[in-house]
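During the reporting period the student researcher (J.K.) took over the structure-prediction task from the postdoctoral fellow and processed the backlog of single-chain submissions. One of the processed entries is reproduced below for the supervisory committee.
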Amino acid sequence: MRIAVVGPTHPFKGGVAAHTTATAHHLAAAGHDVDLVSWSRLYPERLYPGEQTVADAGPDVPPYPRTVRPLRWDRPGSWWRTGRRLATYDLVVLVVVVPAQVPALLTIAAAARRGRPGRPGGRPAGPPTSRPRVVVLAHNVVPHETHPGGEWLMTRLLHAADGVLVHSDEQARLATGHGAVAVTVADLPPHPPGGIPSDLERATAVTRRRERAVAERAVVRVLALGFVRRYKGFDALLRAACEVPLIEVTVAGEVWSGAGRELREVAADPRLAGRVHLRDGYLPAAEVPALLAEHDVLALPYRHATASQNVQLAHAHGLPVLATRVGTFGAQVRDGVDGVVVAPDDPAALAAGLATLTEPGRLAALVAAVPCVDADAAWDRYVAGLVATAGSRA
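J.K. obtained the following structure tokens:
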């Protein structure tokens, strides 16, 4: 198939940009003819309380070679022109990041379906023999932060698509409730910053972690990684750590406004003196493996979630996971086997989960049971699901 993937890529940062790029790579590896059609300006700055791009930092995944960047949120003409150029493709995959993009994505879809662009000299080319199928790749059917009219816009986009791909059963129910006619669920495959470690690197990290875990009265080093936003519950993690003296917490990631103020207020609690390390700022992909190697557990104390690659990121590096039972975490983490799963937004439950990690022998047992990650197989299944979505609408 000739496929256009429309979405963000480096120098835009974040998991969606990395996933979009990785998707283009894996579609091409599966034998498809793929172009990545991206943005030079993604959305208004007021929607993002930080720098949208990281031009000076390396990409999370290798750039896709056939990438163009004709789209700008503030130039509607670029939406229509881009859509017309996509009229000859078999499949157009629209990656939606925030509802503010929906008018642009609807325009791209409508232009692509209208027909081939005009020939030189202004003569119309006529309609293509078959219009492209349009699939929406929705990481979040409902945004983590509410936006006026956001759900209405998402409903318009999902209903207009030939198929919608989501990453969990709950997101599938939401997509159907927001107008999607045909929905496919595919597990989110890993695209870890810095890549999948080699077997030797992973084995070495696991051995060191297990040796430390059996040390008498060793402090358990817990890492919370990623953009600091309130829904991720990093402040709740620190509150819980107040009650568990043998826990040391690192929060590493770009801090978003109000969530940062709340986090710093909790970190100032005297009970956490010397046990909290705040690393504010974007974390380049090249630095992620070393940071993971310095810690014993990855914490995902989210108040709510959809799907995330973070459990697979931890497992790839041999770390057990402390997670709340939201999104896909409950299915990815085996409670008491390779991690600890607790109720969301429950400080007492989170503190109990942290205390479990400090029990003699418990951390070593969890580390020993962390599964390896087969990224290639996961991506094979994902690409198959994405391509199948294109033909799922009657």
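The committee noted the following: The first helix runs from residue 15 to 29.
J.K. will present the remaining backlog at the next meeting.
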